[in-house]
Amino acid sequence: MQQSEFLDPCRSLGNGRQSMASVPLGIYFVTSFTRDQCYRTFTLVLTFLLYTAYHLSRKPISIVKSALHKNCALANEIELYSYKEHLIQAKLLGKPFSNDTWCSWAPFDKSNYKQLLGALDYSFLCAYAVGMYASGIIGERLCIRLYLTVGMLASGLFTALFGMGYFWNIHNLQYYIFIQIVNGLVQTTGWPSVVTCIGNWYGKGRRGLIMGVWNSHTSVGNILGSLIAGNWVSSSWGLSFVVPGVIVAIMGVVCFLFLIEHPRDVKCAVARARKPSKSLNGWDTFKHKCKAYQQQKSSSFMDPEEECFLKECDEKIPAKANGLMNSHVVAVSERSTSPTAISFLGALQIPGVVEFSLCLLFAKLVSYTFLFWLPMYLANKEHIDAKKAGDLSTLFDVGGIVGGILAGLISDWTRKRATTCGAMLLLAAPTLYIFSSVGYMGLKTISVMLIGCGALVNGPYALITTAVSADLGTHKSLAGNSKALSTVTAIIDGTGSIGAALGPLLAGLISPTGWNNVFYMLMVADAFALLLLLRLILKELHIFRPKTNEFELKEH
Length: 556
Description:
Shape: globular
Largest sheet: 2 strands, antiparallel
Oligomer: single chain
Distance between the termini: 67 Å
Order of helices and strands: HEEHHHHHHHHHHHHHHHHHHHHHHH
Strand order of the largest sheet: 1-2
Strand content: under 5%
Radius of gyration: 26 Å
Helix content: 55-70%
Number of strands: 2
């Protein structure tokens, strides 16, 4: 049988009738992919699973909080309700009330338990933020596969060690804080590495949509982590950490065996941007091409993925760039000669890095406050048990999946990353206010509000950490240097992680004064995130233009 006949699901018989071939449609579908497409899809799926494992190991702490301290402090009316409810149950069972048995686990049995739990979050996230800056620089200089493998094995170890405190009967606060700090440092190996892999394999054409779908690993990991931790939180909370730790370690071994860092490692074609038009391309945005750009602007359409991402490129571009004006092939060959890694300050000078980094600081503050405190908020306000609160909190992550995909799809369609983020941030603030102001809600109302908040809060966060980071890491001002992607990603996510550290800490300090004040803090952070993107939004909407362009336009 010839190759064409093998691939054709139908073949002609001798009598002229058509009959289904022996090849199943599923095999026909699989064989329709090229070798490059198979490798590219495999890398996408594998990195999705790897970072799902990372986030799966971060979620248990938010589920176990309600087990570490079972609301025995009479801090507010809601906790008083739980306290009285326990008294009634104890009386019905004929058992005397014991404060020691009610408060589950020392040292979190004090009245300041929220501050102590907030210290655990702050220890992890602060270490994560500090380590992220170094991780990106280190990741540019090491084999990504080995770097990820070591990081995942270490993450699995320290996640499990936190849970072993239950089995070893450890009640020392310093032990848990130390574990959180080290775990925060080793978990920084994940994000810059997986984003660099995806950036190597996928071009800019549909990067927003592809990375929007791919970035759902964050929410999928949170959901799985919630379900796994919730399964043991009421019986043996140590397993809520040990099981995710084992899963992360296993995925580290999978990473070592199967991850392909770059297409050239398996002799695949490097993904390229769409071919620019002959009359106008991205390099025309250099200073010495501004006049030609202004002349053709009224009659030609500029593809934002072929031009500089947010503003005109610097004059610091090497002179040899002049020879690359109309040849992407030369740029690809330049990348294959292993250029030197970009410096930290050099990455900061890429247009848009500082603005998006600071925006992510406030956006991630909101997202991680929900990540670490939502189960306890639901348990306190709605009088839901720990397992049910953990399961219900997964709806916020479901909304995050929807929001990340929508943000990527809309930004690809409009070709305006900053404007897409700004629109979602603008809608997020009133949604947060409605969620906090509505009184004791039914499960249906809570479910709808959680999905809506998750979509609007995590949408900008997902877009900035994926498509925007990849765009800036492959910015035209780098003149084809591909050694900047990990560093840029680390700077953006590291700055965002500062907000991720501050959010849960502030929530722990503010929540004793009332949960409404926590939501006011989140709305203020959301407003700051929007303000930091305002200049970029105005530029994308062509409301703001540099004065130099205006003067050059008048010369024509």
